[in-house]
Structures are given as structure tokens and as C-alpha cells.
Amino acid sequence: MDRFTVSSIVKVMNELFPKEASFVISDDKRYIYYQPSKQIDLKIRPGDKIKPESVTYKALTVQRKIAEQKDSRVFGVPYFGISVPILDDGNPKGCVTAILPRKPLLTMPYLTIRVMDRWLPVPFENVIYLEAQNRKTFVKSTYAEGYHIWLCRSSWVGANRTRTSYH
């Protein structure tokens, strides 16, 4: 990959991902660019060989997008990686990877649905099916049915680096 291509990719990645993200660009064998963030630094250096346990290696091997959480055994820091291979005539030529602080695991094993005039928690094991209806999620469970509505969604850092929350 030439320098112009790498700088173009990095510019786009900075616009797409929140400021907490680090970025790695590799060819098919080595890391060629690394931009750490203040939140997460895997201590990768350009020229380092791609680690076999990394999401970059897996994306190059299976030749498709990979999004996985990794524990600290790979780089000494747990992280969530999203990696997309760059293919040329079906052959992997490189990879672009975004590295984020580890995603929090889902802590509540239920959905909350609106039933008439109240909210009702429904454990996952009682959900029969989910269905999208008019941009809302209809939930049918073993004992109730109603709409699950996101009361608060995650914040996103836009292109101008301002934080936007959707409620």
C-alpha cells in the first residue's frame, strides 16, 4: 500500500469512529500503520508481524469482516476489534482494523416492553419472537406482548467531534 492510500484510509477512519478508537493498517504479513488513542494502546509498531491471535490475522485468513472481543493475552490489553480485509482478485493484500475499548457485556438478561400503561421486564428465555413494526420492536413472550422501545441509545461522536445522543 502506498502512503497516499494509508493517509486516505486513516482520514476516513477518524471520521467514522469515535475518538476512543485506535487504528491499524496492515499488508498481508505486517502492520504498516498504527494510530493509538488515549483510551486504548496496543503498543503496535509499524513493521511488527501480525499476531496470529489478532482480529487482523483472522480477517486476512477467512477473507471477510471480523468483529470480536479479545482478552489481554494477545496484546496485554483486552480490546474489541473490527477488521476488514482488502482483497485483490480474491487474495488478501492488507487489512484495516479499528480497535475500541472492550465492549461491555450485556448485564440485564431481559427486555423491557410497554404493555398498556406500564413497563414489564421479560426474561430472554420467555421471548417467543421479535418483529419490527413501524420502526418499533414488537415482542411476543410466553405471558405478555408489547413494544420494546429504546429509551436511551449510545452516544456517537460525529465528524466534527461533537457528542450526539439519541433519546
Q: Can you tell me about this structure?
A:
By secondary structure, the chain is mainly beta. The chain folds into 2 domains: 3-101, PAS domain (Beta-Lactamase, 2-Layer Sandwich), CATH 3.30.450; 110-165, OB fold (Dihydrolipoamide Acetyltransferase, E2P), CATH 2.40.50.40. Helix content is 13%, strand content 43%. It contains 2 helices and 12 strands. It has helices spanning 3-16, 55-62; strands spanning 22-27, 31-35, 66-70, 79-88, 91-101, 110-115, 118-123, 127-133, 136-141, 145-148, 155-157, 163-165. The strands form 4 sheets. It has a 5-stranded antiparallel β-sheet. A 3-stranded antiparallel β-sheet has the order 8-9-10, with no helix packed on it. It is elongated. Mean pLDDT is 83; it is low at 152-167.
